[in-house]
Amino acid sequence: MRHLSKACMIAVNIISIILSLPAAHAHPIAGNEDARFKVFPNFVECSLHGPIADIAGNDISPSDMKGEDISEEARANILDWLKSRFIVKPDGKEISPKLIAAYHYPARTQDQETYELVLRWNTEKQAKHLDITARFDPKTLISVGGGSYVLTASAPSATFETRANLFRTILDFCWMGMDHLFTGFDHLLFIATIIFACMHLVSVVKMLTAFTIGHACTLIMTSLGWFQVPGYLADVGVAATIIFVAVQNILSREEIKHRWMIILAFGLIHGMGFAHSLSELLPKEGLILCLLSFNMGIELAQIIIATAMFPLLMRIKWKKEVLNGERGAREFRMLLNYGSGFTAVMGAYWLITRLFGMG
Hints:
Structural class: alpha+beta
Strand content: 15-25%
Number of domains: 2
Order of helices and strands: HEEHEHEEEEEEEHHHHHH
Strand order of the largest sheet: 3-5-6-2-1-8-9
């Protein structure tokens, strides 16, 4: 049990590090802008940070910057402001960006408040170079791949050469898969609820393997165009699977035999949801490699979750049953029921909102 506890602590530390990465540069030095670019096989993505004073006004309110939940009016105002401040030309061709998300980070004083914009320029193929012009004051730090450049009023433009890099592509799509699972609360809760009911490590391996095979099959087949399912139907299906496994946990008094078959079938549904989220990001060239890398990322995220959660649950179960006998077993069962009940409620919420187009 000592080894399990150590494994648990290591996994928790890993998750903490991973989840802290995006926020590490979310608050730039006041007065400076920080634009970090990533070049993918068929799109360019940028995370742009700066003082909120630069973007506030211009019919833009910090209260409108709520992540991906942005009104069309606010979205249009932000993009209109961006045109006069920031120009990106993949391979010399100016194209309009899409606003993926906008965030406002409050601070003790207004001059320390910052914003973050996540932008994406869709390209037909991987850009060989980027022409970037920034009209910020006093300066903008541009990062592309491993290179950085400072744009100032006297030198507002720069050209960055980009090269197709097999390892970089694998790493980017792998990270994208991990990020998709860690930030996809519905998928995350589904996996956690499955692990919650597993009493043996072999069961955890079976469940996660079945889930991986299931979602990998439909993700690849859907992305290759072999069949298509509307995104909202896939999302509704995901919500239904969450309710099912939660209720099954509550009603079953023993570990469910052959549950991996059910999880395999549900993995097919979750794979359709993954495919819907990934559809605009996949390139025509190197499609299979990108899909496999994305799946690898999801699998790594699942392993991290299982490594953190299962030893902790087994430690709690052991302490309760050894120290309190039958009473401890009942208490652990109650913990399982409460956790699964929360999952069922969340699943019902997602099901209703997705069925009626409210979320």
